Amino acid sequence: MATKRNEPDVQSSADDKNSLADHDSKDSTVKEAPSSESLTFTLSLPTPVRETPAHEAAVAIDDVAVNAHHVDPASMATTSISFVPASVVTMPPEVAPEAAVIPELPPVDHPTTRRGRQRAEVRPAPETATMLTAERLINQSKKSRRPAPEGFVQQLVYAVTFHLVNMGDSYRVRERKALEARITKMFTGGTRFVPVLTRKGGVGKTTITALLGMALADTREDRIIAIDANPDRGTLAERIDKQTRATVRDVVMRSDSLHTFSEFQTVVSRDETRLDVLASDTDPHVSEAFDEDDYNVVADMAERFYSVAITDCGTGIVHSVMRATLQRADSIVIVSGGSVDEARLASETLTWLELNGHADLVKNAVVALNTATQGTNLVKLEEIEAHFKSRVREIVRVPYDPSLATGSVVHYRDLNKLTKNAALELAAVVMDGLPEVRTD
């Protein structure tokens, strides 16, 4: 370390010593004024140099000196340059880029939105309430389990396994459901008319009409009507519990005032299966007055409110009512008994129809073989069936039933199981022959 000091003379040093010696003795009494001379020490230390660490140098920004100065625009000279292009280049017109084609995504089986719904297609025309069907609204994929099976063994296994094993319906249940599916066949294009006829009385024509109508009404969900069009006094209304005294004559007289179904219900009787029955004239003096025109009025009225109309025809087939009935018929049911003469008369009925321009109805006809008549046990029913199979579309055998043999009110729930199955089979066969769509 270098020390720079002043060199006092010898006299000054002696005086200083004397002054220091007297300072202690005179300090308590008189304080002398400080000397005008002073001693100054000056130290020259090296300037510390700080070295920048490597981690700071890596992120440091170099200092660049900026010389900011003011530029006077007036002192600047302006130079203009003009040039003439040697040639003009014509650019081609811009072509709009082609829109990118985005392929459509494949259909999604499950909803993709947050609430599990997809955007449905909106039809241009307003929809009716009948278009809100269960098949359209219910999500079939969310049905976790099949319906419970029917059948003793199937239901037992289903219950014991706590609904884990579902064997499905039994064979008989599957047959019954298939039969019901045939009966509930849907139609478009107007009412379907099915006459029940024969040339001989006493073979159970009215009973077959009641059984057919009850089976249809009990299985189907639409409206079924049975019309007693017998020019003589018919007994169809006596097969159910009558609720009104009105007949076909009242419908003809009040046709202009029966505008709604509620008003039409006042002239018909309804049984436990929801079958509506329109009775024939009960007065023998005016029964012959029911003719072709009257039947057309009744049929037009039934066509406004019902899906299927079954007509119980009279024993004769040459009267005018039969002509109007056959003109509206979509299919026919021929009733035959189990005796020789009854079967022969039923076959002659088919022949008469073929000769009078109704061959198509004969090919599509159904023969109901009533085995409750006398002499059935002595006749080969198989031979009768073989005969009719060569002429008509189908044959259904109706067994004997005590509830039908009395000729009184028929309670569909009280019929034997075989009789009820025969009625369902007859209804299914008749429905098979009716056209689903009719344009005329």
Report on this model:
The protein is an alpha/beta fold and 440 residues long. Among the domains are: 144-183, no CATH class; 189-432, Rossmann fold. It contains 15 helices and ten strands. It has an eight-stranded mixed sheet, with helices on both faces. A two-stranded antiparallel ribbon has the order 1-2. α13 links the parallel β9 and β10 (394-398). α5 crosses α15 (417-432) and α9 (292-305) runs parallel beside α10. The protein is elongated. It starts with a strand and ends in an 8-residue tail after the last helix. The relative contact order is 0.11. Residues 35-45 have a biased composition (Polar residues). InterPro entries: CobQ/CobB/MinD/ParA_Nub-bd_dom, P-loop_NTPase, ParA/MinD_ATPase. It comes from Rhodoglobus aureus.
Structural category is alpha/beta
Number of helices: 15
Helix coverage percent? 25-40%
Main sheet overview: 8 strands, mixed
Percent of residues in beta strands: 5-15%
Look at the structure and name the CATH superfamily of the domain at 189-432: P-loop containing nucleotide triphosphate hydrolases
Topology-level CATH name of the domain at 189-432: Rossmann fold
- Tell me the name of the CATH class of the domain at 189-432: Alpha Beta
- Widest sheet: strand order? 5-6-4-7-3-8-9-10
**What's the architecture of the domain at 189-432 in CATH terms?**
3-Layer(aba) Sandwich
Average pLDDT over all residues: 80
Q: Any idea what the radius of gyration is?
A: 57 Å
Pfam families: CbiA
InterPro entries: CobQ/CobB/MinD/ParA_Nub-bd_dom, P-loop_NTPase, ParA/MinD_ATPase
Region (Disordered): 1-47, 104-124
Protein name: MinD/ParA family protein
